[in-house]
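Could you help me review a protein record that somebody else here produced? My question to you is simply how this chain folds and whether the tokens agree. Thanks in advance; the entry in question is below:
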Amino acid sequence: MVEQLSQISGTRACVLTLISVLVFIISKATYNLYFHPLAKYPGPKLAAVSEIWFARIWINGSLARSLQEAHAKYGDIVRIAPNDLDFVSVQAFRDIHGHASKKDSAVFSKSEMYDSFDPVPAFATMRDPKQHAEGRRKFAHAFSATSLSRQSEYIMKYIDTFMRQIANPSLVLILLKAWRVKHELCNFRLHIQILEHGRIVESNRLQWLNWLTFDIVGDLAFGDSFGAVEQATPSPEIDRIINIFFTGSLGEVFRRVPLAKLFAPFMPSVRKLFKDYNAHLDFALQKVRKRIARGNDRDDFFGHIIGDDSNKPNELWLRAEAEILLAAGTDTTATSIGGMTYYLLQAPKTLEILQKEIRTTFTDHSEIDELSTQKLPYLNAVIEEALRLTPPLPINLPRTSPGGLVDGDFIPKGTTVTTHQYTMHRHPKYWTEPDEFHPERFLPLSHPLYDTKFRNDNLEASKPFLTGRHTCIGRNLAYLELRIILSKLVFLFDWEATSTLGPGKDIDWKRDLSAKFMWVKPPLRVRYIPRS
């Protein structure tokens, strides 16, 4: 009898617990849907009641297009999670990311998404506005136009090596070695390169561009490159870092849906993430120690920070900054050049105009540098238009409202607010033919190729590097690299798209590009034909 009563009591307790959980879920959902301070804003119903909608589009790679579709359906302000609003207007961008309008105005600080696994955060992930500003000031000199001009010799070295390598007639053994290394790293996205008469005619250009950008930033951050371009071989460390980029984005899912953490120990990708992350921390720390030991013997990212023996910087802090520089300044730049390549190949007349501008301006590729390329209007218009269509980051960058106005709406304190560059860059309110590649819209009005049909375009609606106090500190470096790399590729080579590349074909950049914190890119098969 006692045993039966015990079983009944246990069953009743389970039932009551289940009922309580269901009542809580229903009550919470009802509150979020009808009584929450953000209940008046439109958006998907699932997004209003739980974090699942946003977590799903974050993890399945559809975030960029899903947010664009949500804004097309619901308007310029969309509720994308119970406590999150996404805005797509120029004024909202200014209000959230720009400088405070008054000295004593509260600012929209970074949200919990920026919390770092690293015990010593880099300035880019610091949520406190004052700490962020102080950290940013330490690096402002390194990214100034003057400083980058002094660093250009390091940058040009890798770009010129890159140009020689993609025209190198003797890469067969090296490429076989690269294939073997890729297999050993269990990366099954096989990168095949076809050679004809000893010349590479078909290559996944994005792989090479990743090597190039990692070598440049690795040298400027650590004083030592990864050697990928010189050896034409993928570095295990580069693969490790890229894996951290993408798998690490699961942290945002775990933050939004804490129950998902229960499955983390059983996910091979998460286990590999922690293994790669710890290995990368060790690698970066060793590199930082070597850089500190060299002292301030050269102009690079850390040269002016590293003082004499009595004023050595904190190793962990320098490592954190180096990690952020690698994350922000490598794959993003490779993506941008990849986008430019695809759009130009699909617009032969545009490519022809760019070729004419570059090939009539320069007589030798050695004339192409950070200063000479600034003066080419069509080149710079091509870059701006490609950045509009494919901004460096596909995600929305969250801020926490202090209780203030965003585009005329008062947003309660504690609300997470975001702006989505990809959607704003393609909003028909701001752009004529918003999904089409037309560099002419960014030309000066006095340029003979400027098209008046774009006169109503709002160029302020293109913010690939954010704005105000949150402007990407590496903006000048990115533009420098983009101008020089694109100019040299156009000057030295004729380009041909392979038969598998283009709209509706096996590789369609617009269709196959997906968003998982960084852009996940399809292979970009291009034939490089050296000019005589």
